[in-house]
Amino acid sequence: MTGIAAAADADAGMRKGLRLALPQIVIVLLVVAVVLAAGVSLTAGASNASALAVAAHWLGLAAPDAISARDLLIVESIRLPRVVMGLLVGAALAVSGAVMQGIFRNPLADPGLAGVSAGAGLGAAAMIVLGGSLALPMAGVVGYAALPAAAFLGGLTTTVILYVLSTRLGRTSIATMLLAGIALGALSGAATGLLVYMADDKQLRDLTFWSMGSLGGATWPRIVTLSVVLAASFAVLPFLARGLNALALGEAAAWHMGISVERLKRSAIVIVAAMTGVSVAVSGGIGFVGIVVPHVLRLAIGPDHRFLLPASALLGGALLVLADAVARTVAAPAELPIGIVTALAGAPFFLWLLLRRRSILDM
Amino acid sequence: MSTISAKDVIVRYGHETILHGVDFLARAGEVTVVAGPNGSGKSTLVKAVSGEVASSGAIAINGRALGAYEGWQLAAQRGVLAQETTVAFPFTAAEIVGLGVTAGATRVARPAELIEMALDRVGLAGFGARRIQTLSGGERQRVQLARVLCQIWEPLSAEGPRWLIMDEPVASLDIRHQIGLMELARDYARAGGGVVAVMHDLNLSAMYGDHVVLMKSGRVAAAGAPEEVLRPDILSAVFACPLHPNRVPDRGVFVLPQSALAQPALALAAE
Prior knowledge:
The complex is a heterodimer.
Chain A: H1 3-43, H2 51-58, H3 69-104, H4 116-134, H5 139-166, E1 167-168, E2 171-172, H6 174-198, H7 201-212, H8 220-247, H9 251-256, H10 261-283, H11 289-301, H12 305-329, H13 338-356
Antiparallel strand pairs in A: 1-2
Chain B: E1 3-13, E2 16-27, E3 31-35, H1 42-49, E4 56-61, E5 64-65, H2 71-77, E6 78-81, H3 93-103, H4 111-121, H5 137-151, E7 156-157, E8 160-161, E9 163-167, H6 175-190, E10 194-198, H7 202-208, E11 211-216, E12 219-224, H8 226-229, H9 232-239, E13 246-248, E14 252-254, H10 262-269
Parallel strand pairs in B: 3-10, 3-11, 6-9, 9-10
Antiparallel strand pairs in B: 1-2, 1-4, 4-5, 7-8, 11-12, 13-14
Helix pairs in contact in B: 3-4, 3-5, 4-5
């Protein structure tokens, strides 16, 4: 072997080594980012209660009267649930996006764009407006689960319809998918509008909340529901990751590599619908997290889903918590809906992505 | 039963019948070539025996019915190289090949070494860190071949020979790599594995095929050793154009396209 060839080999080996180590490094950095984002968000707000002071109080490091009861209440009861819910919803949205992109084999797939969020919103709206008259005897029992379940069913129905419409002979057409997503989104929107028309004042207040998205409705019971759904979905992700990697080579190649493609697609669709549904149920429609986060991460650590999915969860959570901090502070003491913040940041990014990859739409 | 066998295989797409009751046999230790004109059903036959396409009839790999295999068992027994594989995300060559290691039954302490060996085997040593989208068509195809090789790295397993199934594997390769791929296929067969390849190049088929199956209109027109099958009468009938294979002593059969034949070939094709 010549010296040049040997040097080239060593170089390739080094780059490969770097590539193998990079995802782990990025994931560690993201964990730090999540902690920082949570700290910033716990501190930011109309009141100048500090997360550090509260942390010191929790750890028993501060003098008993170093922090006022009012500040403690603000951080513990108002900001903390918001931050926890932000982390969970952000993780759910980003992972849903990454899984959907893997299943559709396209970086432009996203529950928000494809009408899945709108379908989930319709499910939630239907439960708010019609639910009271339907499930009276069981209201006490299923009351808690009813709203997320309705949103889940709405999301699931939309995802299945979308998949059937845009996939023919195992090939998914991205143009059909986006157009079908627009149509399904509009249909869900119209049906939701009809429900708004029928709603009374209290229901109307609840409904308005869905349209723009907010973490303002964070409560511990909601967080528990969200956690349960997320824990169940995340438990399946390691199995999905291998299948999604193989699926990147197409359904036939994945099948030849021993992947049960139909089972993979079914479980992925159920998981996307569950995570999107429960997110929409607790926080309304928050757009662009699912498309921006996985894309940025693919640029940073590559497309291997074994790393992409957990990294998406971390970055999605951190970004949403930061977006919430912005939403709460830019117009303080008033509060912007978080959906406006994510759209303001995400939509230009999406347009840039579209311009860079215009050829995708010609598929 | 070190064979892939198919009896009376019928494949329909909608109302179209692609295969009309095909019998097929490939033996381990041999390179079996499936040739024939466009639309004759070669690819469909190979897809049927690899399990990709639903068919009626009895298909067995190593004496065991295709349907009796779990997906992962089939993946451990046979690798399939498609005519073209499009990759959806910017994976590196090494990551793609690594998918084959994960899918196969060869357990290695250091997958990176097997990946590098496979890339080296297809003439792509040092390409591991390259993103697949930055490679040429032929290089991409060889990355996919390396992936399939990793899946069935050892030609022999406790469950019988492993199988390398390829659909027009040389279509995007230059002549050096065409020969390289065919030699790789022959080596795999000589080491005890089985190879089934759809081919358009009759010369490569004659050079490297141990057994040639000629298809026409969804049926087997002829099957046997290259010198039995690649005869003027059979070839001319199957391809509907006059073809005159020649023989070189010690080298076997070769078929040269001759410009004088272009006229009648076109006329016949228009029939």
